[in-house]
Amino acid sequence: MIVEIPRGLPEMLRQVTGFIYPNEVEIHWSILIVVYPYLTGLVAGAFILASLMKVFNVEAVRPTYRLSLLTALAFLLVAPFPLLLHLGHPERSFEIFLTPQLSSAMAMFGFVYAWYLMGVLLLEIWFEFRRDLVVLGGQGRGPLRWIHRALSLFSKDISPDALAFDRGAIKLITLIGIPSAFLLHGYVGFIFGSVKANPWWGSVLMPIVFLMSAIVSGIAMVVLLYMILTALRKEPTDMRCLDTITSYLFYAVIVDFSLEALDFIHRLYQSEESVGILGQLISNKLFVSLFVVQVLVGMVVPLGMLIAAKAAKLDEGRRRLVYLVAVILIQLGIFSTRWNVVIGGQLFSKSFRGLMTYKMEVLGLEGLITALALLVVPFVILAVLLRVLPLRRLEEQGVQGSAISLRVSEVPGVSSLTQ
Amino acid sequence: MNKRQFMKGMIVFIAAGPDFATLARAAYAKADSAKAGGSGDPADMGLGDYDPSEHWYGMGIEVDKCIGCNRCVVACKAENGVPDEPYYFRTWIERYSVLANGETEVECISVDPGKQQREPPAENRDVVRSFFVPKLCNHCAHPPCVQVCPVGATFATQDGVVIVDQERCLGCRYCIQACPYGARFLNPNTHTADKCTFCYHRVVKGLMPACVEVCPTGARVFGDLRSRASRLVRMQRMSKISVLKPDLNTEPKVYYSQLDGEVR
Amino acid sequence: MAAREQVKRLGLVLAILIGVIVLVRFVVIPRAYFSTRHHQASTVKREVAKPVHFAGMAACRECHSDEYETKSAGYHKGLACETCHGPSTGHAEDPMSVKPYAPRDRTFCPVCHAYDRSRPTGFPQINPAVHNEGLACIACHNPHDPVPPEVPQECSACHAQIARTKAVSRHASLACTTCHEASEQHKVSPRAALPSKPQTREFCGQCHAGGAAGSSVPQVDLATHGSHYLCWQCHYPHLPEGNP
User: Fold this and answer.
1) A59 vs chain C: nearest CA distance in angstroms?
2) Which sign does the torsion angle of CA B122, B125, B131, B135 carry?
């Protein structure tokens, strides 16, 4: 019979050590399933940062508020694609919406995603940008003007009353949005945490650890984007904002590290039957990705750098450099965390007697190139969004008089809109 | 009326319309389900006189009878069109060698069936006991694979056989991850989840599953747990029965007699 | 109070969205699609319609009752026809044009009968490299009634692993019958007529407590060695120098 077997299988069979159930030689959830929780984690984390300002009134982080929302949107739009590309039958994916089986955590995906996208993120973005869209729709020329008008749903009311309503709505949406963001990423943690067959995944702590590392990665990503954007636009960086955010980042990393350390110590202490094979897993297969990248490079070194930046009272330029390197390392660390969970959980046999390998394809629908492309596309989407939507409030730009993006300064009468 | 009032009215109208449609559909649905009947007409499923609700299937494995000949594996692949490649098995055989120092060596002999004749395992004075264990889908009464399927493509029939709907399965592979026994695989032809079906297409016609049919020593025992006279019921009476991974509460319906504690 | 402009706009979008969803769910997609029972029933129907490849012994018996009767009286009574002859539904349906496979070469029978140390004790095993080399198995053994041409005098025909273990042990020169009494019935119904095992300590004492002075046979004092237990409850007589 002519069969199209996944290409890496013969080599993966040769590299099996110990005993595995014969069907386990194929690694079922590939790098795309590593990319998916990484993307939704960034969404959840960026949104939590935005909510810091709106719900907890941390004014210092205001300069990154809109950026957080747009970052969350850019990553959220790409998030379903790794899943679609991974399915054996992507053309049947709508079945999750139409006939979900309610006992399955994965069935939640369609509804949680749709709710978060439409009921939380798009709604909050609309309320936040509505005023500026109305203004921009009223001035300017060309197709961009119509895009602005359409995005504002052709509304026109920017009276103080209407704007107060907008602010109230945003507050309410953010309030609802925080648990929604937790649900969006937490259910992925639950998908893994509820698998009793797999001792690497099946743990009560799994959804919590997923969420905490998501918050870390999201905050770090917004910091990274903020620094890159202010550099590209040649605007001054608000150091008070950066210092505040990196403080929150610092605490988030501490909590994340503590939770992961707790999980590790707990397993070692309890010493259940699986501890033998899991020990072999992390010392043979996951040594570099776990100890070196996830822990050392991704958590310990950035923590040290952040401590140093604060304690050594570095000047602005050096602090910025330290922050930049730290958040990049954190991204590597969190991606590695996802890898260690998803791929790591599939590298040992459920018989607890053997280990497998994962041969990642380079080309191919579930290959490295696809994964990298999916990681790059959100930045492209963000660039498009930033072309259409102003990153800082028009009234702030008019009032502060700092370097204003060219398009806005072309708009006549913008100063008359300030209040 | 002005534009504003018209828009207000439109919104109400648009919201109300589907509501009426929903009520109408609900009324139709009630009428229809009363017609279709409770448990599904067996004739509709091509079962003829066979009534699934009268049966509850399980399998027994007598470990001390298995000679590790792999006839069951070969027959299963022939009967069910499983790819011949050594990465896809609906059933397989494991060889256990328990050594005097407490270690256990395990090997799957179905992956390279010719190996036994090419390089028979060497005599080893350290081996305290050695035996073969057939494995297959356990058709659990409380199946974790059914629980996690996002679209309900895998389900248990009324007679206790867990099967996969090859036309609805998305190929998400969650069931494969959830199975503690490694019984499932992704069929490379259909790109859907696949596994042992107890040869349901044979069983409903009164035949034995292919693996049971060809087992030379009668190590595989298929039976109806609801029947008063079946090989499986006798086996449950005469042997001490174990199942695999009982602590996971999957309630497997493949019952092993003489199962060694080293078997996972 | 007139509804806020934002509420009206969003309300419109929501209404359109709900309208589309309701339309698709209740009008466009047929109702049966949402019924679990419908999908399960059609799956069962598809599953049950799959082709059968193994006909089963009862089907073979209908035409080949002679072979079936012969087989039912011999050692292969539990062995299905298709285990050796392969899936034969094609032949059962059209006996004249489709013939089943009939294994005739030496590589086939050793699949079950070649010696393998993990095979259960009592299963007849041979070493294909030395057992009647070159001859086809069926030259001496009728596959439907596989009685060996000469009834084996040695227990090793069925108890190969024990024989091999003993053959490299200190007890190699002892015949199986030294310690075990087996009736002829044991060769016909092995599990029903089991051989005996020594039931007294003095039995082993015949060699090991008799004081054959100067011999290399290990000697023990039965009065003090091993309490009241039978010797083989600790020592493995087939490999006495191994771990007890």
Assistant:
1) 26
2) negative
> A130: which chain C residues are within 8 Å (Cβ-Cβ)?
6
CB nearest to B110's CB, from A5, A20, A22 = A22
How many angstroms separate the CA atoms of B185 and C193, rounded?
A: 45
Report d(CA C244, CA C237) in Å as an integer: 9
Closest-CA residue in chain A for C17? Answer: A118
B217 touches chain C (CB under 8 A): yes
Question: How far apart, in whole angstroms, are the C-alpha atoms of residue A393 and residue A129?
Answer: 8
What are the pLDDT digits (tens) for A83-121? 999 999 999 999 999 999 999 999 988 899 999 999 999
Assign A198 to helix, strand or coil. coil
Give the Cβ contact number of residue A282 at 10 Å: 18
Cβ of B65 within 8 Å of Cβ of C111? The answer is no
Q: What is the pLDDT of residues A161-182, one digit of tens each?
A: 999 999 999 999 999 999 999 9
Least confident of A312-326, B1-15, B62-76: B1-15
> Cβ contact (<8 Å) for C114 and B116?
yes
For residues B258 and C5, what is the distance between their CA atoms, to the nearest angstrom? 76
Which DSSP category does B239 fall into? S
- C-alpha closest to that of A26 among A352, A285, A361, A340: A361
Nearest C-alpha in A relative to B84: A1
Both structure tokens of B64: 């001390």
**Global pTM?**
0.89
Q: Which chains touch B (3 or more CB pairs under 8 A)?
A: A, C
> Hey, are the CB atoms on C19 and B127 less than 8 Å from each other?
no
Q: Where are the domains of chain A?
A: 28-91+104-418
Q: Which residue is it, tokens 């990553």?
A: A75
| Number of Cβ atoms within 10 Å of the Cβ of B25 | 16
